[in-house]
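Hallway conversation turned thread

IA: we were arguing at lunch whether anyone had actually written out Transposase, IS605 OrfB family end to end. Turns out nobody had. So, for the record, here is the sequence (415 residues) and right after it the structure tokens. Reply here if something looks off.
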Amino acid sequence: MYFCIKQQLNGLTKEEYLTLRELCRIAKNIYNVGLYNVRQYYFEHKEFLNYEKNYHLAKTNENYKLLNSNMAQQILKKVNEAFKSFFGLVKLAKQGKYDYKAISIPKYLKKDGFHSLIIGQIRIDGNKFTIPYSNLYKKTHKPITITIPPVLLDKKIKQIEIIPKHHARFFEIQYKYEMPEDQRELNDQKALAIDLGVNNLATCVTSDGRSFIIDGRRLKSINQWFNKENARLQSMKDKQKIKGTTRKQALLAMNRNNKVNDYINKTCRYIINYCIENQIGKLVIGYAETWQRNINLGKKTNQNFVNIPLGNIKEKLEYLCKFYGIKFFKQEESYTSKASFFDGDEIPEYNADNPKEYKFSGKRIKRGLYRTKSGKLINADVNGALNILKKSKAVDLSVLCSSGEVDTPQRIRIA
């Protein structure tokens, strides 16, 4: 399996920085050349121009000759991927599984834009590698050598990507490396369910009634600080009539994104380690359908949901589950916060075409608490996570349900 490590590319000289900007601009030109070829062929023949044919058309372009041939080919493959996705959506739309209005043909990158440099053929000398140039480009530009992170020196690096950020004010470098899967012998009769949120980022409950909550208030405070500081910078910018994103705003956004990604990575690692240590063989995570994502929860709550990339948590957990041999399930979570797990409520699935009102045995009485029919109080998010697990039918929960008990959740604060 493949994993990625990202880091900011620091320590560049002014000359190296300008060279990278120029290369990323050339890469953008090649992308647009390849895109033009495929678009025009589609408009004229209503067919897909594949990578091989596009390559023979694009390689005569002056921009292609300025970039290392392997890097140029990787960019044309990106064009190929974009159009394969486009035609895939068209096919789904014809089958009635996707909305035609939501599909658009891949668009050109802006004239003053940039594209990533994708290095597929990597030659490492000790702990360094040199960005490959074309023979023509070598004649006029000095080489750029980059030090590889020590953690990757014993790994098989498959691909390196240099990504221009914030209109190429900064550069990020991403290493894609290969690792053999670490399949564990786990118990398929044990499962862990996750209910994602804001203050409680991940409420986790096992099929035997143990529970913990990954605190989300740290992540929330990172976003609140970012929004407040960005509003201050925006106000200063408006007074000075400056257009576009300033350097300070770009740095602020990058700092915020790094902190959020670090917190999410550590959260996912904690959950996976918990599953391995407790021999849990199945992981179930709730997801919201479109109807839930589009409801208005108020300005502040909506902003928190937008700024916390819950989708990233799902993706990272799914990938790690595959790596360690944990069976991963995504479960639609409509009505899981309203139904009473210990009262055995049936949990329907929301139908946007035929919405109905349902009555449940218990109810949420105040912030964070759910009261069952018998008057028993439990953590509301724990009740939701239990219902997600019940709805998935991943494991038998009859013993847990009849016991009427679940542990008080331990709050975990990620450092």
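OS: looked through it. The longest helix spans residues 14-45.
IA: good, adding that to the notes. Residues 290-297 have pLDDT under 50 and may be disordered.
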